[in-house]
Write a structure and sequence with these properties.
Layout: E1 7-8, E2 38-39, H1 42-71, H2 78-84, H3 93-101, H4 104-117, H5 135-159, E3 164-166, H6 170-204, H7 210-222, H8 235-256, H9 260-275, E4 277-279, E5 290-292, H10 297-315
Parallel strand pairs: 4-5
Antiparallel strand pairs: 1-2, 3-5
Helix pairs in contact: 1-4, 1-6, 3-6, 4-6, 5-9, 5-10, 6-7, 6-9, 7-8, 8-9, 8-10
Length: 322
């Protein structure tokens, strides 16, 4: 424990001092309030973020490389295999999708390790100060964002119908679908717990200004996406898209007091890109139902802003009551 650091138990944790591992926040309590539960000194968040990142990127990369060695064509050198990891689609749609998602369980495991052992509280406290995560709220966010993705795809199709192609391969699609339904929520939930949960909670130890927290989340969310292949189309606009995506997810989380909506939105967004519509050059080179060669970053930016405004209009008026 650092000097002057105290261990703070959650509100209403029970008689006799309570359990600092189990969040039990009262009505109106935000997930930001959980930042001080357990051992919540700012220095612990700096150390924790570093350890999570190392566990995520280093351990995940090693396991990905080991799987790539098993899946690669005979005769390729270790260097060639390592370089091919930057373009997982070279391994095929199913194996490539597995490689993309290989690192995210390590992000989740790193978070569990850091939150339990360094901060002495539960993983749930990254998402909510309530006793449990409300699955219904997650599904609300998922359903509305999925509908907005469908609307966006229809608008894009109307602008460039010739660029869309139906690639219906039942044998491949129904093998891929269970993988997408299993791995995509793990990926998106782990990222939300880290970027909107852990990192925002850590930043809140210095300031609880919503604008600073949202912009900080957006900036940090850009960094791991800089290596995505679509960045080569228009880096400036793609960076802006990822930044605004991070800001939007942070804003709805701060407004709602939990990560529930953001978890649903992120899962819907990535699952839609994996199984419904993907575009040439996307990191999601999957057997989606539709493929398009029409990817306009400027149009994507406009649609993102429009979708975010509609979503916030629906959910941002007030917090959901318990």
């Amino acid at each position: 424990m650092t000097p002057n650091e105290t261990t703070i138990a959650p509100p209403n944790a029970g008689e006799g001092g309570g359990d600092s591992h189990a969040p039990a926040g009262p009505r109106g309590c935000s997930f930001l309030d959980a930042a001080g539960w357990g051992k919540g000194a700012g220095a612990r968040y700096v150390l924790g973020a570093f350890l999570v990142f190392i566990y995520w990127q280093a351990a995940g990369a090693i396991v990905s490389l080991l799987f790539a060695l098993r899946m690669a064509d005979p005769g390729l050198s270790l260097r060639e295999i390592a370089e091919s990891l930057s373009s997982p689609s070279t391994f095929g749609p199913l194996r490539g999708f597995l490689l993309i998602n290989m690192v995210h369980p390590f992000l989740l495991l790193g978070l569990i390790f850091v939150v339990r052992l360094i901060h002495r509280r539960s993983l749930l406290s990254l998402a909510t100060a309530r006793p449990r995560l409300r699955l219904g709220r997650v599904l609300q966010g998922f359903g509305v964002w999925w509908a907005l993705c469908c609307l966006s795809a229809l608008v894009d199709y109307a602008l460039a119908p010739a660029s869309y192609e139906l690639r219906w391969d039942p044998g491949l699609f129904f093998v891929f679908l269970p993988l997408a339904l299993l791995l995509t929520p793990i990926q998106t939930t782990a990222e939300e717990l880290f970027f909107r949960g852990y990192l925002i909670q850590g930043l809140s130890r210095a300031s609880r200004n919503p604008l600073l927290l949202a912009c900080g989340s957006g900036f940090l969310f850009v960094l791991p996406h800089l290596a995505n292949p679509e960045m080569g189309v228009n880096p400036i606009l793609l960076i802006l898209i990822y930044f605004l995506t991070g800001v939007f997810l942070a804003v709805i989380s701060l407004r709602d007091g939990t990560l529930e909506l953001a978890i649903g939105v992120h899962a819907a967004n990535n699952l839609f890109s994996a199984v419904a519509v993907t575009f040439e050059g996307s990191i999601f080179d999957t057997p989606a139902l539709f493929h398009t060669t029409h990817f306009d970053p400027a149009a994507t930016l406009v649609m993102l802003i429009a979708m975010a405004v509609i979503f916030y209009t629906i959910f941002g008026r007030r917090r959901e009551s318990p």
